[in-house]
Amino acid sequence: MTRQTREVRIGNVRIGGTHPIAVQSMTATRTQDIAATIRQVELLEAAGADVIRIAVDNPKDVAALAEIRAARPNANLSIDLQENYRLAEKVAPFVQKLRYNPGHLYHIEREKPVQEKVRYLVDVARAHDCAMRIGVNAGSVDPAKLAKTTTDDSITPMIESAAEHCAMLDDLGFDQYCVSIKDSDPNKVIDANIRFAEMRPDVPLHLGVTEAGMPPDGIIKTRIAFEQLITRGIGDTIRVSLTLPFEKKGDEITVGHQILDDIKSGRFRSVPRFEHKGLNIISCPSCSRVENEAFIDLAQNVREMSAYAKEHDITIAVMGCRVNGPGETDDADLGMWCAPSYVNLKRGPQSLGHFTYDEILGKLREELDRLIEERQIA
Ligand code: SF4
Asked: Which residues lie below 8 Å from residue 145, measured CB to CB, with a gap of 6+?
């Protein structure tokens, strides 16, 4: 099925229109660990990445980015601006794309109208010939949009937030942008992107299931969403978000290409509607903000430890940092987000305290047993 979005240029890659779907990923190492991050960029380039995203949170990250750019001059780099959006003017000379999150933009300089912040980003993007991505995530939706929701419909606030920011960019006459609307639930990714595509058929979409987790489950969730969307002509770029050891990060790109090849050849794996049954473990793909590299082992250990509960409809979330961890774990039955020397444990939105990396699996096991027992009694 064909759907034609407008063309957007990201360095030497073009997305939208009739261009092939671009495959992206993100570095997982600390940005200031320059050698390790260059190695990540090399791994992703070797695997065939069209665009590589790097997180930048402070001036030291900016300095590191300059060196990474010098070492990999041909990579199409995208920068992930979270709350520190004012770094845009410092990083733009080194990259081809700026990604901002409307939810995070809301929180900084609250006295300033969001239109002013967006105008600033557009001015920077224009000055340095950068594309932009409006990146909406389920765990960090603009609170003003959430406040308007009276039901448990979590999709509408995400779509409204994306549409509002598209309108701001349109008003500024800036058309070199795409949108992403991500959730850890593939069904919500499918529904949200279908609805947004109907509303804005001209805007290129970047697809992804956020915190999809570890292979193979993370690949299955992502494949299901991509099959349902791409066959409808929706999707101009993709990212497969997987929790992987640093040296295996190129697998995100390899898997992305594999899924695209399968869809093109008519090799589908999904049923019309994905219904998750049993234990569901979601975990972030990690990025430079990971507070302790032990996060990756923790995610794997959680999966092994909790295997005994595989028949139970329980979601456990494992997140790498404080930026997205607190919000993205709210909807899980049991959630963890990592700090440098301890792990925060939650039951739904309620905090259960924090525990060392040695203690956390035991505490999680206790809470998991308690949850199973309560549900069996109920
Ligand atoms: S939760 Fe934190 S560490 Fe994990 S991908 Fe998101 S920002 Fe990066």
From this structure: 157, 158, 160, 161, 164
In order of start, what are the domains of the chain with their CATH numbers?
A: 8-264 (3.20.20.20), 280-377 (3.30.413.10)
Q: How far is the CA of 198 from the centre of ligand 1 (A)?
A: 30
Residues 6+ apart with CB under 8 A from 50: 10, 13, 22, 23, 24, 76, 237
* Residue of 319, 328, 338 best suited for mutating to test ligand 1, as the one with most atoms within 8 Å of CB: 319
Report the alpha-carbon distance of residue 239 to residue 47 in Å, rounded. Answer: 13
Residue 349 binned pLDDT confidence (cut-offs 50, 70, 90):
very high
Residues 44-89 have pLDDT tens digits of 999 999 999 999 999 999 999 999 999 999 999 999 987 789 999 9
What is the rounded CA–CA span in Å between residue 272 and residue 249?
Answer: 30
Q: How remote is the CA of residue 278 from the centroid of ligand 1, in Å? A: 25
The tokens 């494949």 sit on which residue? 223
Strands 97-100 and 77-81: parallel
The whole-model pTM stands at 0.85
For residues 138 and 282, give the distance between their C-alpha atoms in angstroms, rounded to a whole number.
Answer: 13
Residue nearest to atom 2 of ligand 1 (CA): 321
Q: Which pLDDT value is given to residue 110?
A: 87
Q: Indicate if the pLDDT at residue 2 is higher than 90.
A: no
Task: Tell me: pLDDT of 251 over 90.
Answer: yes
Residue 270: its pLDDT value, please?
66
Q: Assess contact for 337 and 325: CB atoms under 8 A.
A: yes
- Which of 182, 289, 291, 295 is the best mutation target for the ligand 1 pocket, counting ligand atoms within 8 Å of the beta carbon and taking the most? 289
State the angle between helix axes of 251-264 and 34-47 in degrees (0 to 180), rounded to the nearest 10. Answer: 20
Dihedral sign from CA coordinates of 320, 324, 328, 333:
positive
pLDDT level of residue 271 (50, 70, 90 thresholds): low
